[in-house]
Amino acid sequence: QQINTSKESNAAASKLNDIPEALQEVKNHLGDIEAENTMERIKMAEKKKRRQSNDVDRASSKWKLENEGKLAAKKEATMLEIDNQLIPVPPSHIPLKSLIDVEIKLVYVDEEDITYEFAKPVVSTSTQSACHDSEKADALSAPNFSFLPQIDKWLQVTLKDASTCYRQKKYAVAAGQFRTALELCSKGAAIGKPFDSSPHDISSIASFIETKLATCYLKMRKPDLALNHSHRSIILNPAYFRNHLRQAAVFRCLERYSEAARSAMIADYMYWLSGGTEQHISKLIKLYWQAMIEEAITREESFSVMYTPFVTKARADKIDKMKDIFAKKHPDYVEHIYTDPHGLHILPQTTDWSSLPPQQYLLTLGFRNKDVGKFLEKMSSRKLTIFSEYKAPFSPLTKEESRRHLETIGKKIMPIMDFIRSTKLTDNFCACSHVIEKLQYASLLGYLQQVTEESQVINQAMAELASIPYLQDISQQDAELLQSLMADAMDTLEGRRSDKERVWNKIQKVGIIEDFLYQTEDSFLKNKKLRIARRQKMKMKKLQSAQQH
Smallest Cα–Cα separation from 253: which of 283, 215, 282, 287? Predict the structure, then answer.
């Protein structure tokens, strides 16, 4: 047992060497509101990003002048000092107590004074706006109720009773009261003057209730029940950083560390985007993010990773050198090695959102299973991912084939893709590509009648869709795709039948047909080459025979 423990700890340390060391459902009318306001939310996100970038641009020119010379000198040295790269000392494992402290300070904080996450009206100057956003993000100042719409009195009483039970640690009773409050919201009893309220106000109240339900279930040690509530709080209010951090806490309790790491990364970015200026809060979030990455690497057995800092685009010879170094460091994971050429990864130890840009890394992965590695490398080159084992484009899978496919995708492919995305904020090809992967996986779960899991995956995909406009600039085409995906996902959750096929299934069919045509063409070309070679061989034989004669 001691020998096995020693081996496991050595393997974990070897993996960690390659992290560079440096400093119940939302009801129909709420769903309809959300669908109607997707484009409005995209516009709000773009305005917020522009406002934030204006503040940064003033510092940007100075930063560029000061660093232009340094970057020119460092380009060759930083890209990639692989030949004499030192193996960094493995970071000390972040203790559980530190994570619990982060959750107490940022996840389980008593939010009675957060004014139901309402946003004040936008003021004229960017400075005033940034100050307000900082106060809202930190949620530490006393509330100013002058700008809030009047909450429905019955809802207010219910929420007050629920909060009292929560503070008395009667979490089951509190959860029942918050569920009652959510039902009142769904029946239109959110705002005292419903005709004067905006969809954003109703969403903010519903999001607040969803977060409290998630927190109650976490306190009751029922993270599986908290999961959908954490997703819905983000769907209703994606710009609030604590919603993402609660989602991360739920994933941690479920031992889904890669997904917890991504949620923490988004929480840290949202905190900065909304004007958060308190460094200690950002440091706590980054600590949580780093701990989740380390835990994911340590526990993973099917693959290992290596991050390499870079400045310029990686050339083929440099990528080959990275693969050689990886093979020496991780001899157990050399069945298939590939470096993600398109993914620009970031790590919590070196990420500063205000810098232009944060330090970026190339990710090299090595696998024990050759087929899994090849499949993932093939998917990384696609604009839109498809999961398929279809042997022909128009023949559906049987139940048995679907179960086998689900086993492969759910246990071998998705965990690796979740890990890749734990250090990758945006997608290079298509903003919605990772969401389409999730929704295709949900369709497979639905086909096999795994309803609970299907609901969780769809809610998670919708939370990602709601967050995308805040994470990156999106084209008009991506915005339309996002709307279509959100509408179809909502219809699926609510059990609405439609004559039209779901968007993600259409995309999957197109991808399957493209694959089929590519394979057919490839096979035809191979056969053509064989025929030509055979003819040439026959000609040579005839020529030799004639010469002998």
Answer: 215
What spatial distance separates the first Cα and last Cα of the chain, rounded to whole Å? 77
Sort residue 367 into left (φ over 0), alpha (ψ -120 to 50) or beta. Answer: beta
3-state secondary structure of 467: helix
As separate numbers, helices (DSSP H) first and strands (DSSP E) second, the chain gives 20, 3
Task: Give the relative orientation of helices 433-447 and 399-408 as an angle to the nearest 10 degrees.
Answer: 140
Helices assigned H by DSSP within 410-450: 414-420, 433-447
User: For 28-69, what is each residue's pLDDT tens digit?
Assistant: 334 444 545 555 665 666 565 555 555 544 444 333 334 443
Quote the longest CA-to-CA distance of the chain. Answer: 109
Residue 362 phi/psi, 5-degree rounding, is: -95, 140
Q: Do 489 and 461 contact (CB within 8 A), yes or no?
A: yes
Q: Does the pLDDT of residue 129 top 90, yes or no?
A: no
DSSP annotation of 145 reads G
Buried b (16+ CB within 10 A) or exposed e, 434-469: bbbbbbbbbbbbbbeebeebbbbbbbbbbbbbbbbb
| Exposed e or buried b per residue across 290-319, where buried means at least 16 C-beta atoms within 10 angstroms of its C-beta | bbbbbbbbbebeebbbbbbbbeeebeeebb
Confidence of residue 81 (pLDDT cuts 50, 70, 90): very low
What letter would DSSP give residue 368?
S
* Rounded-to-integer distance, Cα 367 and Cα 311, Å: 26
Q: How far apart are CA 453 and CA 437, in angstroms?
A: 15
Pull the structure tokens for residue 114: 């957060």
Q: Look at the pTM and tell me if it is higher than 0.85.
A: no
Tokens of residue 74, six digits: 């460092």
Q: Would you state the pLDDT for residue 152?
A: 80
Nearest to 236 by CA among 50, 495, 52, 38: 38
Task: Record the tokens describing residue 409, joined without a space.
Answer: 């995708």
Residue 239 and residue 45 in contact, taking contact as beta carbons nearer than 8 Å: yes
SS3 367: strand
d(CA 335, CA 547): 50
Q: Assess whether pLDDT exceeds 50 at residue 103.
A: yes
| 166 DSSP 8-state letter | H
User: Tokens at residue 126, please?
Assistant: 């960017």
SS3 assignment, position 171:
helix
Consecutive H or E run containing 234: helix 223-236
The fourth-level CATH superfamily of domain 94-112+149-299 is Tetratricopeptide repeat domain (1.25.40.10)
Phi, psi angle pair for 526, to nearest 5°: -60, -45
The CA R_g of the chain, rounded to the nearest whole Å, is 26
What is d(CA 245, CA 404) in angstroms, rounded to the nearest whole number? 34
Burial bucket for residue 69 (CB in 10 Å: 0-12, 13-18, 19+):
exposed
Query: How far is the C-alpha of 308 from the C-alpha of 18, rounded, in Å?
Result: 8
